[in-house]
Write a structure and sequence with these properties.
The structure holds two protein chains of two kinds. In chain A, 40% of the residues lie in helices and 24% in strands. Chain A is built from eleven helices and 16 strands. Chain A has a five-stranded mixed sheet, sandwiched between helices. In chain A, strands 12-11-10-15-16 form a five-stranded mixed sheet, with helices on both faces. Chain A has a four-stranded antiparallel sheet with strand order 5-6-4-7, sandwiched between helices. In chain A, helix 6 packs antiparallel against helix 8 and helix 8 packs across helix 10. The radius of gyration of chain A is 21 Å and the shape is globular. Chain B contains 20 helices and twelve strands. In chain B, the strands form two sheets. A five-stranded mixed sheet of chain B has the order 2-1-5-3-4. The longest helix of chain B has 28 residues. The radius of gyration of chain B is 41 Å and the shape is flat. Classes of the chains: A alpha/beta, B alpha/beta. Chains A and B meet through strand 3, strand 5, strand 6, helix 3 and strand 14 of A and strand 4, helix 11, helix 15, helix 16 and strand 11 of B.
Chain lengths: 349, 585
């Protein structure tokens, strides 16, 4: 069985070929968050009546995955991320167990001898202890399901999924919830890669802080209402190039700040020696993926930043992937199948 | 002896000349230039750039006075007509050490609420420097700014608003009647700055004007425009002027710009005289004329004494020269250098055209092939190569003569698709099956080469196998089947690469009830407050001073009697119920 799983800070997605119909893909997608409810009889009865899966821990009820949103109305606190700041939390034991539960539910049963699973790891990939812990934990989760895990860079995976018409050569940028991953590749082989700690959650948090979009629980404790900002972004169909009102203007500024950092990083990567040796001054296509790029005017704003950083003459085109949110996990599955072919050929040899 | 005397005199002369030369080459200049800071800033102005220590962008902005917690600074270099980069600056942010340069314009935009009202301002960049103007009144247009700063309206395309704060309507083609907004940077530069450097450095060819002495002409486009004597603002004024210029409205004829500093006036007078001297010698011409450059070398040196730091910045063009540019251009068209220039342009255009019609270079070969990957692969999949065609013809010939080769329909059915589905022998940059796919030490190369060699060997060995036993033939058929499966999987992978496979989004089957260990951390708290034990009195009519009364410290005894949040949760309900009962009774 060959499958792929993308551990994102906003969603966890897994995909594999349908065993009965290999020409179709089967995908699972669950929100990587949970809702805390007080463990009362009424809450239990409500969850049971609506057949909402939940967990019990420390006098609380926990609803995780996609059902966390549907049970949100029972709670006055916002949902909690399973991967806080893109990291596996060390102070939240239930969150780690929920991650294990979700992994077990989203990966198919390994059937044949070759069980390979390609996974992506959230957070920074800077070689720090936290990054190693993240990778080791998620690696172990996949291994526990009987798969041979293989970690892949999310930008590299997105490049495989989206850049076939550019001969898998160019710049791929995945702007997720917590981090933005950039890679430059030639013919499918990654030359340089960089991850910066800025993403959609930073923009939403700053917007919520600026406009004081908050919610309060029964005891008066305040929380930032990030979900409200996300809903507003979806419903208002903001265009970053034509912002209307203070909130949209603020959003456009925050995106400009984030993309300024992205463009700065791309500039450094393009000027690095490995890229210079591999690509010289070849003009590159930029492919965008990730949930944070799904906003009107994103590509135009990035183009402006590239112009301001004097690298527009190195860019051939800027495109948003046709499936920006699922491109990473699909690319991971492509890599898994390629790896499977290679392993088979080695065994045959 | 005479030789000794002459050598001695020469040595004395040389010693006497050394300090003079040193004074000329390295005059003492405490400031290397000036930088202008405009936008949401407390003191918008031009600030000198010290030579002894590098002044960073963050220092320059903080020296100008922050009006909010954090600001976004857009840096415009003197050699560019657009923003170079932006950076966030706050009181406690780290300094990235990026130094400012002479002629920089820092446009500051507040990223958080302003703590004090900001005076509206803008910047005007000319060839002689940057002028910060204050926008005290509403409705000030670009023409007012130029009139107030005694600048001649430039030709078409030279007047630009090169930077405007985000969120405001951008101007693509600036006109004199366009309003000037807070934080705008207006440029009337005649010099050939790198405008379109981002798009392949295709900067438009702009003639370089050499004279500035004829700028005293009356501007026909601005009403009540006074004749200007020269370009008023120079680099010396840039550093000495400390008060932003207040721009009057167009209709207000009583308000005129007055240069506040006497030094500036003296400098103007001195430079006016200087310009008067040089204006008689300067004529507009193209910069490629080498003979004229040589002839005007002295003039160029004089010009450098009051021009900005960038040597590419040309002085303001004389208005007569601009109006009568046709005649001068006609006169200069007979210059042989113009023919050389035109010939060069034609040659360059021809080369560019030839370059676009030429096939892609090696680096882009993969792209061009990949762009047409689908038809190529589709055609290749069902088009056998020369070897395979020869083999097919041989096989058909053998079938015609009734040889026992591949007499069974099953073997024929298996074999023909195997040949048709075989990958091409010729190396090509396709996506999956060739060497270019994951070049280097990646597994794709190994896989494809193995598959090709297997297919080749299988095809080559196919004819001899026809004379072997039945068992060997069955093995070969199995091998062909495996290859067919490989091809099928490769085709599936191609579909996956092209995102042609439908995706079924399924619902995850989670366990209905599980037990977890540990205490959940919960969401991140914004602030942690104790529950309000008592509802405070109405405070809407209180003044702000009374509202800010310090909280009364509770004693431990009072705290002991303080009801908890659980106790007080129903206190409001009880109070309302009591009031309701009393009202009913």
């Amino acid at each position: 069985m060959i499958c792929a799983i993308d551990f994102g800070s906003c969603r966890i997605r897994s995909v594999f070929r349908n065993p009965q119909a290999p020409e179709r893909l089967t995908m699972f997608s669950e929100r990587s968050e949970y809702t805390l409810l007080t463990n009362t009889q009424q809450h239990r009865q409500t969850l049971e009546a609506q057949a909402i899966p939940c967990a019990e821990c420390d006098q609380s009820l926990v609803v995780f995955g996609n059902r966390a949103a549907s049970a949100q109305w029972l709670s006055r606190v916002p949902r909690t991320a399973l991967l806080t700041d893109g990291n596996v939390p060390s102070d939240d034991a239930p969150a780690r167990q929920i991650l294990s539960q979700l992994t077990e539910s989203m990966l198919p049963d390994g059937s044949d001898s070759q069980n390979l699973c390609v996974l992506t790891v959230p957070g920074l990939r800077d070689g720090s202890d936290q990054a190693k812990k993240n990778e080791a934990f998620l690696h172990h989760l996949v291994q526990m399901q009987g798969y041979q895990p293989l970690v892949v860079n999310s930008a590299e995976a997105a490049l495989l999924a989206t850049s076939s018409d550019a001969a898998f050569t160019g710049v791929c940028l995945v702007m997720g919830a917590e981090t933005t991953t950039i890679c430059i590749a030639r013919l499918g082989k990654m030359i340089v890669s960089e991850t910066i700690a800025i993403g959609g959650n930073w923009i939403d948090t700053e917007l919520a802080k600026h406009f004081q979009v908050q919610m309060f629980d029964e005891t008066g404790t305040g929380y930032l209402n990030i979900e409200s900002i996300r809903q507003w972004k979806i419903e208002s169909r903001v265009n970053l190039k034509n912002p209307l009102g203070d909130r949209e203007r603020m959003l456009a500024r925050l995106y400009a700040v984030a993309l300024d950092r992205v463009a700065h990083t791309v500039t450094q990567m393009l000027n690095s020696t490995p890229v210079w040796l591999a690509l010289n001054k070849q003009r590159l296509s930029v492919m965008l993926a990730g949930g944070a790029v799904v906003v009107d005017g994103f590509a135009n704003l990035l183009t402006e930043q590239f112009i301001q950083h004097d690298i527009a003459d190195r860019i051939l085109s800027i495109r948003i992937a046709p499936d920006p949110e699922t491109a990473v996990v699909r690319g991971a599955l492509i890599l898994a199948e390629l790896e499977s072919h290679a392993l088979k050929s080695k065994e045959a040899a | 002896m005479e030789r000794l005397k002459s050598a001695y005199l020469l040595a004395i002369l040389a010693l006497a000349a050394v300090p003079a030369v040193g004074q000329q080459t390295a005059p003492h200049d405490p400031n290397a230039g000036a930088v202008a800071v405009v936008g949401d800033i407390e003191h918008c102005n031009t600030y000198p750039v010290p030579t002894e220590a590098a002044l960073t962008v963050r220092q320059a902005v903080i020296n100008a006075g922050l009006l909010s917690e954090s600001v976004n600074v857009t840096v415009i270099r003197s050699a560019h007509d657009r923003a170079q980069w932006t950076q966030l600056v706050s009181a406690n942010s780290a300094d990235n050490g990026e130094p400012v340069e002479n002629g920089d314009i820092l446009v500051v935009q507040s990223m958080s609420p302003l703590t004090a009202p900001v005076k509206k301002n803008a910047a005007l960049r000319t060839d002689s420097g940057v002028v910060v103007v204050g926008l005290e009144q509403e409705g000030i247009v670009i023409g007012d700014v130029l009139q107030a700063t005694a600048h001649v309206p430039p030709n078409d395309g030279q007047l630009k608003v090169i930077c405007r704060l985000p969120g405001k309507t951008q101007i693509t083609k600036a006109e004199l009647y366009h309003p000037v907004l807070h934080g705008d940077v207006i440029s009337i530069s005649r010099s050939n700055r790198t405008v379109l450097k981002g798009f392949g450095r295709m900067a438009p060819a702009v003639s370089e004007w050499k004279s500035s002495g004829a700028s005293a002409a009356r501007d026909p486009f601005i009403p009540n425009a006074e004749p200007t004597t020269s370009s008023s603002f120079t680099s010396s004024q840039l550093t000495s002027q400390s008060v932003p210029v207040q721009v009057p409205l167009s209709g207000d004829t009583s308000m005129f710009l007055s240069i506040p500093d006497s030094d500036v006036t003296e400098a103007n007078v001195a430079e006016d005289g200087h310009n008067a001297e040089t204006s008689t010698n300067l004529v507009p011409t193209l910069p490629i004329s080498q003979s004229e450059d040589v002839a005007d070398a002295g003039v160029a040196n004089d010009r450098m004494s009051f021009a900005s730091e960038s040597t590419t910045v040309a002085p303001i063009a004389p208005l007569e020269s601009q109006i009568g540019a046709d005649t001068s251009a006609t006169a200069s068209a007979f210059n042989p250098w113009n023919f050389v220039f035109i010939g060069g342009l034609l040659l360059a255009g021809t080369l560019i055209l030839a370059g676009t019609l030429k096939p892609e270079p090696d680096d882009n070969t993969e792209f061009s092939c990949a762009a047409s990957a689908t038809p190529i692969s589709a055609a290749r999949r069902f088009s056998p190569t020369a070897d395979q065609q020869a083999l097919l013809s041989e096989l058909s010939r053998q079938k015609d003569v009734g040889t026992p080769l591949l007499q069974t329909a099953a073997k024929t059915a298996v074999f023909e698709p195997a040949i048709q589905m075989a990958p091409p022998v010729q190396p090509s940059p396709t996506l999956i099956a060739d060497h270019e796919w994951f070049s280097g030490d990646w597994h794709g190369q190994v896989v494809s080469s193995d598959r090709e060699s297997q297919v080749k060997s299988l095809i080559a060995d196919q004819a001899p196998t026809s004379f072997r036993g039945d068992d060997e033939t069955v093995c070969e058929v199995a091998a062909v089947k495996s290859l067919k499966e490989d091809e099928q999987s490769r085709s599936d992978l191609e579909d996956l690469l092209q995102n042609r496979l439908p995706i079924d989004l399924c619902e995850t089957q989670l366990p209905l009830r599980v037990a977890l260990f540990g205490k959940p951390a919960g969401p991140r708290r914004l602030r942690i407050d104790a529950a309000h034990s008592a509802v405070p009195a109405p405070h809407m009519n209180l003044s702000s001073e009374k509202r800010r009364e310090p909280p009364v410290a509770t004693t431990s005894a009072a705290a002991a009697h303080m009801p908890t949040a659980a106790d007080s949760s129903g206190s409001l309900d009880r109070a309302l119920h009591f009031l309701q009962e009393r009202k009913e009774s």
